[in-house]
From TrEMBL, chain A:
Lineage summary: Bacteria, Bacillati, Bacillota, Bacilli, Bacillales
SUPFAM superfamilies cross-referenced by the UniProt entry: P-loop containing nucleoside triphosphate hydrolases
CDD domains: ABC_NrtD_SsuB_transporters
GO molecular function per UniProt: ATP binding; ATP hydrolysis activity
Record key words, sorted: ATP-binding, Nucleotide-binding, Transport
Residue ranges constituting the ABC transporter domain according to the UniProt record: 4-240
Coiled-coil ranges per UniProt: none
ATP-binding recorded as keyword: yes
Keyword ATP-binding on entry: yes
Pfam family, one: ABC_tran
Protein name: Nitrate ABC transporter ATPase
InterPro entries: AAA+_ATPase, ABC_transporter-like_ATP-bd, ABC_transporter-like_CS, ABC_transporter_ATP-bind, P-loop_NTPase
UniProtKB/TrEMBL annotation, chain B:
Chief localisation class: membrane
Superkingdom as given in the UniProt entry: Bacteria
Domain ABC transmembrane type-1 residue range list: 87-271
Protein name (record): ABC transporter permease
Length: 258, 285
């Protein structure tokens, strides 16, 4: 059944008399528990689309429904676990205290229930941060901070996770390692994820669906289903099909350059 | 039996070892000294006082012009029962003014951080109050409020107000966009964003202003006392100036200096305890 439904959505930014058409006629549908990657050239509106779904930006045309709710309605019920590009950890809180933030604000929102809460320490251990539970954010490296951000989103109990290039500031090696950790933690939680990335490899490795977008104005040029078996592990990168998907996506991205 | 030669080498070795141990100790002491927070400034102060003492004695300076530090200390310790109540009055005025100025500034900062319009309306008034020399206002306050503590408290509060206001506005406003967006994604209320994000974010700004303001507030109290008072360290300085009691004057100055150092360090201490997460609290001064 369709869980997230994006219908004919358009978005314009107006600033100092100048109008930018950020998104045009976006139509997308995702089922619950799907891992979706958004990929496309810089400025094609990936972040905008993510923020629209999360109720952080309004739309000019069209309609977005999340389990029958508007984005703002879903936000009020705390349905979103947001992982921005920079990890957005409060420096005055320890790692564990940062994990508590989703439960301390908007306590009327029903999306996250404290009683059903997963043990945050266990979650941190699962991303290899068991020894840093009581450290302050500035005592962690960028990659470690980003892992806290991911653990916080999964541990918040929110059914939908919105990740906007969470790995873009990391080096190649860390990035690869964290992508496997994300794969594992997703496998054990099966949440609906919208994941913005610039990496073809990450998109194919993690996703059930890859949405390829084109720029100016942002449009969906192709939605590709990734039919690779799950659970997936590192050896999937030896799979021929894996590389086939990567070149297929690359093909769609290149098409638009011409 | 050891031979005499062996004995000799042993003694030499022992001496060498002893020397090495002493060297190590010296190095350690040197390290301790240069790394300590208190020792270097203390040494500098002692040097300064020795120089002062020597200069006064060797050059036979008239004690009415410049008393020797030992004479000042003798006077201060000898008549401490006289000085302490006055110091207490000044401290009381300064601290009351400091807390009053801080409370008003933070409250105003909360409003002004929330509304640009309010900021545009109120900030010029605050700036006007700030650029007007406090010495010029002090006599007016005495005229209005008399010789009691009130005008001094108000002057100390006015001095404290502006730096606290500017820093609190900055602290409340200068939050990370990403943090704000994260809070919004959870549909956090304005109030929650204030208490969980803006307020903790402002603490380093508030403390850095408080460190300066706490000694400024002492200055405010003294300026108030100069303009008209019956007690307080500022009053002592003024009176002793009239009667050329230089030792007494220096005693009051010493007490003010000590008060300033203590107050600044208390704020610093609270800051370090409270803001261990903040980078600048790990560094000196
Ligand atoms: N707040 C804003 N005000 C005005 N224009 C904006 C704003 N945010 C985004 N835009 C414009 O909308 C378009 C899409 O921006 P968006 O940030 O969604 O792109 P993106 O795909 O996430 O890019 P990137 O990969 O570089 O992060 C861009 O042309 C951008 O200039
Ligand atoms: Mg973006």
């Amino acid at each position: 059944m369709t869980y997230i439904k994006i219908q004919q959505v358009s978005k314009f930014y107006k600033r100092r008399g100048q109008v930018t058409e950020a998104l045009r006629d976006i139509n997308l549908e995702f089922e619950q528990g799907t891992f979706v990657s958004l990929i496309g050239p810089s400025g094609c509106g990936k972040s905008t689309l993510l923020r629209i779904v999360g109720g952080l930006t309004d739309i000019d045309q069209g309609e977005v429904a999340i389990g029958g709710l508007s984005p703002l309605g879903a936000q009020k019920q705390k349905q979103f676990g947001f992982v921005p590009q920079s990890p957005a950890l409060f420096p005055w809180r320890t790692v564990l205290q940062n994990m508590n933030v989703p439960f301390e604000v908007n306590t009327k929102g029903t999306g996250m229930k404290l009683e059903q809460r997963e043990d945050p320490v266990e979650l941190l251990q699962s991303v290899g941060l068991g020894d840093f539970v009581h450290s302050y954010a500035k005592e962690l490296s960028g990659g470690m901070q980003q892992r806290v951000g991911i653990a916080r989103a999964f541990g918040s109990g929110a059914p939908i996770l919105l990740m906007d290039e969470p790995f873009s500031a990391l080096d190649e090696i860390t990035r690869e390692m964290i992508s496997y950790q994300l794969l594992d933690i997703w496998q054990s939680h099966q949440k609906t994820v919208l994941f913005v990335t610039h990496s073809l490899r990450e998109a194919v490795l993690l996703s059930d669906k890859v949405v390829v977008m084109s720029a100016r104005p942002g449009q969906v040029s192709k939605v590709i289903d990734i039919d690779l078996p799950r659970p997936r592990h590192a050896d999937i990168e030896d799979n021929e099909q894996f590389h086939h998907y990567i070149s297929e996506i690359r093909g769609y991205l290149r098409e638009k350059w011409k | 039996m050891r031979s005499a030669a062996e004995e000799a080498t042993m003694i030499v070795r022992q001496e060498v070892r002893q020397k090495q141990r002493e060297d190590k100790l010296l190095v350690k002491l040197k390290l301790k000294f240069s790394e300590s927070i208190y020792l270097p400034p203390a040494a500098a102060f002692i040097a300064l006082f020795l120089l002062w003492e020597a200069a006064v004695r060797l050059l036979n300076v008239n004690p009415v012009t410049l008393p020797a530090p030992t004479a000042v200390v003798r006077e201060l310790v000898g008549s401490i029962a006289f000085y302490l109540p006055h110091a207490w009055v000044t401290l009381y005025e300064a601290l009351l003014g400091f807390f009053l100025g801080m409370a008003v500034a933070i409250t105003a900062g909360i409003f002004m951080a929330h509304s640009r319009l309010l900021e545009r309306m109120l900030l010029p008034i605050a700036i006007l109050a700030n650029v007007t020399p406090i010495m010029a206002i002090a006599p007016l306050f005495i005229l209005w409020f008399g010789f009691d503590a009130l005008p001094k408290v108000l002057i100390a509060a006015i001095i404290t107000f502006f730096p606290m206001l500017i820093n609190s506005i900055m602290g409340f406003r200068s939050i990370d966009e990403n943090h704000l967006e994260y809070m919004n994604s959870l549909h956090a209320s304005k109030r929650e964003i204030f208490t969980k994000l803006r307020l903790p974010n402002s603490l380093p700004y508030l403390f850095s202003a408080a460190r300066t303001c706490v000694s400024l507030s002492v200055m405010g109290a003294v300026v108030g006392e100069w303009s008209g008072s019956t007690e307080g360290l500022g009053n002592i300085i003024m009176m002793s100036s009239n009667y050329m009691q230089t030792e007494r004057m220096f005693s009051a100055i010493f007490m003010l200096a000590i008060m300033g150092i203590c107050l600044t360090n208390i704020v610093r201490f609270i800051e370090i305890k409270l803001l261990s997460w903040h980078v600048s609290s790990n560094r000196g001064i």
